[in-house]
Amino acid sequence: MPExxxxxxxxxxxxxxxxxxxxxxxxxxxxxxxxxxxxxxVWMEAGPVATIxxxxxxxxxxxxxxxxxxxxxxxxxxxxxxxxxxxxxxxTVRLNKEAAGLLQEGTVFWVVRPRLTLSxxxxxxxxxxxxxxxxxxxxxxxxxxxxxATKFSFVGLEVPPEVxxxxxxKRFTLKAHDLGSLDVGSPVYYRRIAVxxxxxxxxxxxxxxxxIQVFVxxxxxxxxxxxxxxxxxxxxxxxxxxxxxxxxxxxxxxVLVGGVAFDSLEARSHAAAKPDASFVIFExxxxxxxxxxxxxxxxxxxxxxxxxxxxxxxxxxAFGASIGQVDSIALxxxxxxxxxxAVVGATLYPERLGAKTFEEITEFSGSTIKHPTxxxxxxxxxxxxxxxLRIGNLLxxxxxxxxxxxxxxxxxxxxxEDAPFIPTVPNNLDQLQLQINSILTTIERVPLEGLGTExxxxxxxxxxxxxxxxxxxxxxxxAMLKQASRSLAAVGGLLSPDAGLPVNTGTMLQxxxxxxxxxxxxxxxxxAHPDAxxxxxxxxxxxxxxxxx
Length: 549
Known about the structure:
Helices cover 29% and strands 29% of the residues. It has 11 helices and 25 strands. It has helices at residues 4-8, 26-45, 126-129, 252-257, 285-288, 355-364, 372-382, 428-445, 448-494, 500-528, 532-535; strands spanning 49-54, 66-69, 72-82, 89-95, 108-112, 115-117, 120-122, 132-136, 153-155, 169-176, 187-190, 193-203, 210-217, 228-232, 237-241, 244-248, 260-264, 278-282, 297-303, 315-318, 321-334, 339-348, 385-393, 398-405, 421-422. The longest helix is centred in the last third of the chain and has 47 residues, at 448-494. Residues 1-8 have low confidence and may be disordered.
């Protein structure tokens, strides 16, 4: 029989249900998405990271040291570590997103600490708040564009810059032979007012000079133009020359820390100087204010007399104007006379005589020299121009070289060469000394020994003559004196009051007085009666009788 009943009586298995989603899983999912969004937001809002290299980590601390710009916190130091070469440290800093534009080419970083410099005291606030990293960006950001970092590795400065890059004003470069007493922070003066400062210095490319960078604040930078001249105003400038002793200084600060001063010649005719323009710095104000020199001419002069009192830098004077200065003084030996003489090297500026004079003399000169300056000197030497040492100051004995015309000077020929010789003449004192030496030489040639012998003989003869006169003439002279004494005694007797001569003389004087009185009366009578000379004297009138009463 088929098993139909058993199969038909079995119950079918229940159908399986699908797994349902539990809402409890939404919590971690939402938390994860929120965290992811938060991380994404933090990542998107985080600023750029940059590395700054310093020589030392003094004052730097990860997580605490801030990065500031204009005293505003714009970042923080995240990590400080040694560089791979272990020659310094590398500070990793993170800047705020809005400060990302500060990371660009030209931005400089430095550690702000308390410092004492020539320009003043800075960083005193860090004594309480701690050191921080300061920065100075190059240029200004464009307001129309979002700030974007373009550089992420920098080398920090060990010394903060004296002038920030956004400070209004201009930088200029001064060419000097040496630095002198100048230093970073030394003031720059214009008409004795501080208008800037020295911000740096370095040797030039050839190493034979110094390039000094100065900064002049606006609006005073407009006074620097193509005709401006700078000079070293450091310390106190003492100068002793033909004019005497001069003392000059810009200020007490320049005496202590040095300084630079400038002024403009014919400022109206020159345009304002461009930034980073170069100027030559002069050693003194007088040198800076000198007239334009033109093309210099190197000369040499030979002096056979002493040059004591002549120093390098002494002026060369021509007709009262300074046309150059002494550069060197050396001694050379004259083989023909075996005597030393002085060779004085100097620099002349012939154009200081005046451009018109320079052109006229060179035009009408008959010299065959083609060089204009050489033709000028040849023409003037032909007319008697000579160099002469003169005393500029009797108190100090300073000498200077004078170029003057001597019509009676010996003829000289000027040869144009690398450093031509200018003929010289001795000064008046040297001429007097030569004359005295000539007189002494003549006296030395006199045979003094023979003259001494002859003078001794003359003295002996004179002595014998005196003795002879004493023996022969003395008695006669005594007798003559006695006779003269007797004569004077007789004359004295005649003139005594008791003698007859004075009495008779008194009587005679009385008679002369009466005679003079009578003559005076006669003259008065004749003046009143001139007819008395013809008629004689009239009778005297009778005396008037008294009237009886």
